[in-house]
């Protein structure tokens, strides 16, 4: 017995079934993301970062970790630009700011690419090493100001890098 698709009732029924299937799938994806983010040190930061990327909709754990790792790169680039602005306004901080620019450059050019390569090649341990280093770099930047007798103008910036790196690290550890 064939279903007659020209019937308005049949068409409405099919549309409702398709909508329900899509809604169920979206709820399942969101539940997965929430469960992953609950296992990180910063649920809110994790959710905010992951949901900012449209690719999170159909992502598995590796894809979610890559989203956060790529967000680390964006944050590092923003931090380098912030440092350049501080150098113009605070020439007395040149030495620690130059050091911070170097460590954030390391995050962008070495740590993040290492993590991305490791994750895409199925070797999460090396990915964890890359993001762990990004957290250390943020703390190293913060500490250098005290070594030169200055208060850090980058405390929030450095904390953001450390927090996001720790979210990425927690996600990657779930892959081990």
Automatic annotation (TrEMBL):
Residues 28-171 form the Pectinesterase inhibitor domain. Pfam families: PMEI. It comes from the Eukaryota. SMART domains: PMEI. GO terms for molecular function: enzyme inhibitor activity. Residues 1-28 form the signal peptide. Keywords: Disulfide bond, Signal. NCBIfam families: PME_inhib (TIGR01614). Belongs to the PMEI family. This is Pectinesterase inhibitor domain-containing protein. It comes from Centaurea solstitialis (yellow star-thistle).
């Amino acid at each position: 017995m064939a279903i007659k698709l020209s019937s308005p009732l049949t068409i409405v029924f099919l549309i409702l079934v398709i909508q329900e299937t899509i809604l169920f799938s979206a709820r399942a994806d969101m539940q997965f993301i929430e469960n992953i983010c609950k296992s990180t040190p910063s649920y809110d930061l994790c959710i905010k970062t992951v949901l900012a990327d449209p690719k999170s909709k159909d992502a598995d754990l590796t894809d979610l970790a890559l989203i956060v790792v790529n967000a680390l790169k964006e944050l590092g680039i923003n931090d380098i630009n912030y440092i350049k602005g501080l150098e113009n306004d605070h020439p007395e901080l040149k030495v620690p700011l130059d050091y911070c620019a170097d460590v954030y450059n390391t995050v962008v050019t070495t740590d993040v690419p290492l993590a991305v390569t490791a994750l895409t090649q199925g070797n999460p341990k090396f990915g964890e090493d890359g993001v762990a280093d990004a957290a250390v770099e943020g703390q190293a930047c913060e500490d250098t100001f005290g070594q030169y007798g200055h208060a850090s103008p980058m405390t929030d910036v450095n904390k953001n890098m450390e927090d996001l790196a720790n979210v990425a690290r927690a996600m990657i550890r779930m892959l081990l």
